[in-house]
Design goal:
With about 190 residues, the chain is mainly alpha-helical. It is built from six helices and two strands; from the N terminus they run H-H-E-H-E-H-H-H. Helix 1 runs antiparallel to helix 6, helix 4 packs across helix 6 and helix 5 packs antiparallel against helix 6. It is elongated and about 60 Å long. It starts with a helix and ends in a 10-residue tail after the last helix.
């Protein structure tokens, strides 16, 4: 990876991180599809007494040791179902390590995107930005649509998060394309 590609990727990572920050903290995209539980105190007490200090991703009702799908279908018909991400008491709101991890994740995504952009035969900025948009669409679809389909994530959450991801790749592509070498005016892209 050349220095110019690396610097373009860093610029893209910074742009992606800034967009993600705005999307989650200043726009309603960060809370779309997420609801609060009414009378949550009773449920929180029950969760803590049942799960204690065991953080994790839980599904309910549980499949148990059986892989009998008919039995599971009966459980689903008779009980509420869903996913629960559980953290025992003591978790903190946004922390510096979480922000660093988010930035490093988006930096790596932007570096990979920029490297891919540089590997294509696209030389014009607009074609590279279009390439970044397609990569962003693929990235946005890769987990969000299966989570909506298989786990029942709300459509409003799914579309908001897909928008956040897509625009993140688009702004990273915009920032990187400005710094990558481009073809002289009039050449095909």
């Amino acid at each position: 990876m050349t220095k110019r590609i690396f610097l373009a990727g860093v610029a893209g990572g910074i742009a992606m991180f800034l967009w993600s920050s705005v999307a989650h903290m200043a726009l309603p995209l960060g809370r779309a599809g997420i609801r609060e539980i009414p009378s949550e105190a009773r449920l929180l007490g029950a969760m803590h007494s049942t799960l204690g200090e065991s953080p994790g991703l839980y599904s309910f009702p549980g499949l148990g040791a059986s892989t009998d799908m008919q039995l599971y279908a009966q459980k689903l018909a008779a009980n509420p179902s869903g996913l629960l991400i559980y953290h025992p008491p003591g978790a903190r709101a946004i922390t510096a390590p979480q922000l660093v991890t988010e930035f490093l994740t988006e930096l790596l995504e932007a570096l990979l995107l920029t490297w891919l952009m540089a590997q294509t035969r696209f030389e014009s900025r607009i074609s590279r930005i279009g390439f970044a948009a397609v990569v962003g669409l693929v990235a946005a679809m890769a987990t969000n649509l299966p989570y909506w389909n298989w786990y029942g994530f709300p459509a409003s959450y799914t579309s908001a998060y897909m928008t956040t991801e897509f625009v993140g790749f688009l702004v990273a592509g915009l920032a990187a394309a400005r710094m990558l070498p481009h073809s002289p005016a009039g050449s095909a892209g």
